[in-house]
């Protein structure tokens, strides 16, 4: 009878432990599933925020790059404008010098021609006088 009771007790204890083990496993699985769900929600929210942050950082870097390019192009254009202005100034100076020299040359030519013209008139007058003298 004791042996039968002992076996029955062992069966009951094994059944209890088996049930308890199944209950604990079920609770463990439920908690694990709940932890995964609780972890996945913030993780998904963080992932989307992290992705948005990465996009903004990428756009900011792109903007910074574009700003640097624009500044470099502005410097190049300013240098080109300065060079162009310098060339225009040099061309104006050359034109002014040329016009001044041309005016000086014209004045000199007029003076030269004026002097020569008066000499030519004197020579013509002398020649006329000679011709008149010879004819007379």
Automatic annotation (TrEMBL):
Transmembrane segments: none annotated. Residues 74-101 form a coiled coil. GO terms for cellular component: synaptonemal complex. Keywords: Coiled coil. GO terms for biological process: meiotic cell cycle; spermatid development. Residues 2-129 form the XLR/SYCP3/FAM9 domain. This is XLR/SYCP3/FAM9 domain-containing protein. It comes from Neotoma lepida (Desert woodrat).
């Amino acid at each position: 009878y004791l042996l039968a009771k002992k076996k029955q007790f062992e069966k009951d204890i094994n059944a209890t432990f088996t049930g308890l083990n199944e209950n604990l496993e079920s609770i463990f699985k439920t908690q694990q599933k709940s932890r995964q769900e609780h972890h996945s929600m913030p993780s998904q929210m963080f992932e989307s925020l992290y992705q948005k942050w990465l996009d903004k950082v990428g756009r900011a870097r792109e903007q910074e790059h574009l700003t640097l390019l624009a500044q470099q192009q502005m410097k190049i254009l300013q240098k080109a404008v300065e060079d162009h202005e310098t060339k225009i100034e040099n061309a104006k100076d050359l034109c002014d010098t040329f016009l001044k020299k041309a005016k000086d040359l014209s004045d000199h030519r007029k003076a030269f021609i004026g002097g020569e013209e008066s000499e030519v008139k004197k020579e013509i007058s002398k020649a006329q006088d000679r011709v008149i003298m010879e004819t007379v």
